[in-house]
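Cross-check.
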Amino acid sequence: MKRPLDSCLFESPRNGAVLDVGCFGFARVAQAAGLGRGDLRHAGVDFTDPGNVPVGVDFRRADLNHERLPFDDDSFDLVVASHVLEHVRDPIGLVIDCLRVCRPGGRVYIEAPSERALFLPSMPFKFEAFHSLSFFDDPTHLSRPWTPQALFRLARLLGCEPEVTKHQISWLIRILSPALIPLTLILRDARRFEYWSWLTVGWSCYAVIRKPASLQGAPALRYSIPPRGR
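Predicted model, tokenized:
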């Protein structure tokens, strides 16, 4: 079974355009190629020049705490902002801007630390590797953690369709975690300790948001509370 972001990339239109917000490392390019979607056209934005920009990628530099995404309205079939919201002072404004550059009928994929990232203690070893266990391990986290419901509500308040909003977990890793996580501690394997811990507890949550085919440009945030049933 494909991961949610894999599905978004795989299902993108032929020769579609993908924007990776926070593209350091250009993981989306390799991810799409691994899914057999080498036809996709890639663009990326980050606050610093990552160097070694892959051939054909339209990279632009922007400080998203002070600037909008440097792309025209309605330009991309898929916009990905994975672990970016927590690094900006106005995460709602960034989601609105991601929807602005998304084409009508396109998708925005959001992933961010969840409320469960607050439950874990700090990373206990190999500080120099920059892996995180607690939300507070990363000093560049400027804003709040998220929940699946918060992402769902935000999509609806922006007049968009939340196709799916969930915690990012692996049931296989969760079942095996009583053996896997102590093993990583014994081996002092910080990368797997982080990754397997995240997938066990649901450290991250994600949303796939569909922009209405009738909406051009940026949506307006209209706060409302629907009638509540029992």
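The mean pLDDT is 95. The helical segments are 4-10, 27-34, 91-101, 148-157, 171-187, 190-201. Passed to J.P. for a second look.
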